[in-house]
Automatic annotation (TrEMBL), chains A, B:
Flavoprotein found in the keyword field: yes
InterPro entries: Class-I_Pyr_Nuc-Dis_Oxidored, FAD/NAD-bd_sf, FAD/NAD-binding_dom, FAD/NAD-linked_Rdtase_dimer_sf, Pyr_nucl-diS_OxRdtase_dimer, Pyr_OxRdtase_I_AS
Record key words, sorted: Disulfide bond, FAD, Flavoprotein, NAD, Oxidoreductase, Redox-active center
Organism field: Solidesulfovibrio fructosivorans JJ]
Domain named Pyridine nucleotide-disulphide oxidoreductase dimerisation: residues: 348-447
Entry GO MF terms: dihydrolipoyl dehydrogenase (NADH) activity; flavin adenine dinucleotide binding
Domain FAD/NAD(P)-binding: 8-328
GO BP annotations, alphabetical order: 2-oxoglutarate metabolic process
Record keyword Disulfide bond present: yes
Protein name: Dihydrolipoyl dehydrogenase
Family: Belongs to the class-I pyridine nucleotide-disulfide oxidoreductase family.
Cofactor(s) required for function per UniProt: FAD
Amino acid sequence: MTSSQAKRLVVVGAGPGGYDAALTGAAAGLAVTLVERGKLGGTCLNWGCIPTKHLLATTQAVAALADQAKQKLVAGEVRPDLAAIQAKKKKLLSATHSAMAKRLEAAGVRLVTGNLAGLEQNVAHVAAGGKTEDIPFDALILALGSRAAAFPGVKPDGKAVLGVAPVLDFTEAPESLIIIGGGAIGIEISEIYHRLGTKVTLVDAAPRLAPAEDPDVSKVVAQVMRRNGIDARAGVKVESLVTDEDGLARMTLAGGEVVTAAKALVAIGRFAPTAVPGLAELGATFANPSPNRAFIATDETLQTAPGIYAVGDCNGRVLLAHAASSQGTYAARHAAGLESGPYAPGPIPGCYYGAPEIMRVGAIAQPGDTVSEAPFVANPMAQAYADTAGFARVTWKDGKVAGLTAVGHGASAMGTLATAIVAQSWTRAQCEALVFPHPGLDETLRAALLGEMKTKD
Amino acid sequence: MTSSQAKRLVVVGAGPGGYDAALTGAAAGLAVTLVERGKLGGTCLNWGCIPTKHLLATTQAVAALADQAKQKLVAGEVRPDLAAIQAKKKKLLSATHSAMAKRLEAAGVRLVTGNLAGLEQNVAHVAAGGKTEDIPFDALILALGSRAAAFPGVKPDGKAVLGVAPVLDFTEAPESLIIIGGGAIGIEISEIYHRLGTKVTLVDAAPRLAPAEDPDVSKVVAQVMRRNGIDARAGVKVESLVTDEDGLARMTLAGGEVVTAAKALVAIGRFAPTAVPGLAELGATFANPSPNRAFIATDETLQTAPGIYAVGDCNGRVLLAHAASSQGTYAARHAAGLESGPYAPGPIPGCYYGAPEIMRVGAIAQPGDTVSEAPFVANPMAQAYADTAGFARVTWKDGKVAGLTAVGHGASAMGTLATAIVAQSWTRAQCEALVFPHPGLDETLRAALLGEMKTKD
């Protein structure tokens, strides 16, 4: 089959979902066009997973020193040069952009820089440089990503009140920072700037921090953040957040309390850019169809209309890069006829890399569930790192592991192991049979897997 | 069954193997006596795994700062207080000793502090405080551990030439340190004292460092150690190592070169304390029966004679704490009649926690084997940690994973995951199906698992 005869796949969005969809489609023999309006790599590479991990990793010595200094075992000072750290980040991202572009080219993917202006049956209209190109397709994969949500009175204004992207690009740490949103983004960024010497205030309207996690995980999050000196508060309603006349971020809470800071970050959720002209007319449907908060609804094969797939953040299933990659790979294979069954990826791990670290896969324990658990305080590695808060917990269903979570030192590094165990629904006997290396932080997970089973209150 | 009627199990040695054997035996209803001449926890807890990890973890900020400082992203200085670090170590070890003793007591294990002076049929003679107690047994588990090897001219003298225990107890870092032995102990201790400002010279007679590992792993070990400023040399024969008249350690190499240092560590291998009077007469046999280098030979049920088991280091199978635990647990269950098949623990991981970190499970790739691999330099986490040397490698047999190794940043934390994959002999399709969290150092293992298969030269 020559390229002109090949089935034509158009992928919109070059984040993890779209990029992997394009490469997978090309490997499967499709004629692939990838449309991206901005930078390759999407939110993950440019304003999400990678920049946050870069900032956490480059400043890790600050946290390691602080933990040991509390015990008076180590003294000294560590001074990160944020401008240099950002310059290196730019260099690394730029190298990654080049490598991605080369790989697309080598795979025969046509890359079009432009904005999806509209859709018609089997044609995508892409606007670029004042012109519109009509790109025909047999199958379309929308990998549109997501945008930060806002609400009236709490909205980035480009002055002191900002979204994630500019906050991750600061070349000088602000003296103080307000963060609205106690999810993964808020928790990681609070740790980053805390390490850089910023006075951080974090608030969330939800009754607890990390509201998507096990409630006992949330307790450890609050405990560790406050112990580290972050003013972290849950159950706090924000009336307004604006830039005041002095250029400061000024947050007014429901009770009347006012907090000011040099800068503020709004990180209160994500929604999909669903306003694509023609998308609904092609049969696409939307979930939670409220203004600015909708996602693209998908069926069990990730299609929102015949031949039109939506993958990654924009379908609202799991807003994580590796979920997008997994979905993009499946959708391209499905479009190529290599998959026919429903999308069934197994469990998708979620990790937080700040302080504390969190890992969660599969079911979260509910009252009445059978659980077993172990604390990090008994782990000699956690003791040596002087960071012993937290625990690992197993949720059992019918004698098999249905969910694993851990919060504490190095918990994020347990994510893959935990995913394998949950994916295979290990029995207690399987957990006993695996020889864990000693010593290791994983041994807290082992202690939980082998711990006394009890019913969760 | 009352205790007086229960089968009597005597366990000699309270390291990981003996301790777990005693607890397992008690849980299985045996009347257990545990004999230990020194401290609970054996080499692992007192002079091995745990103290090295304590010293590595407490000094980690030094390494984290150094990595970022090379890139001029972070400045400052980190000053570990070795005396304070050792004081905390003592406190942690002491707390662990108490916790272990309490757990033994709660389990109904009788703990006898004394030395195994001799064996006769169904009786152990234990010397303690000038007296000898005769302890009858139906089954005996020898968990005798191992001792450091030496050879003529290269032997700790208690002055400047030392074994592991005193080197791990230094309260002041020596200005310079010679280490003979390029295995896990030598590599970890060289990194510990390098971080503490000591000038380290490490030599090994083997043609490469980490001689038990994949030869390409050894190359990375040499590269990283030398880059860090450690004078690490393989293929070097030591003629003699003595304390000279100035109290310095003086090492003379085969070519005539002389190296002096404030202190020296001899870490050139381990052997079992096999010289137990009466042991051979009971039918025990010995492997590699050369003076000072023998181990106790065991059959497929870990018995060296009927009813006499040898577990852990002293049987020479795998000199690692978690191997000892696994064997001790099996032997106690076998003695209690709960196991009848051969000891078959699945793969035993081996990890190095210094610089670089190493993880290895299962087969090591040989020329002609099918392998796939991936470098850490492409991993965004390794990039962010400014520590990108190394790689992960898979050895495939009949389309299934038979071995995994990795050397590089965070490699030791991959040990459990790798063990699960090797234990289950994953196919490529299984590797593809597992969703790894992004970003993560594990993704280098994933890239190796999904990498191009080729034949190893």
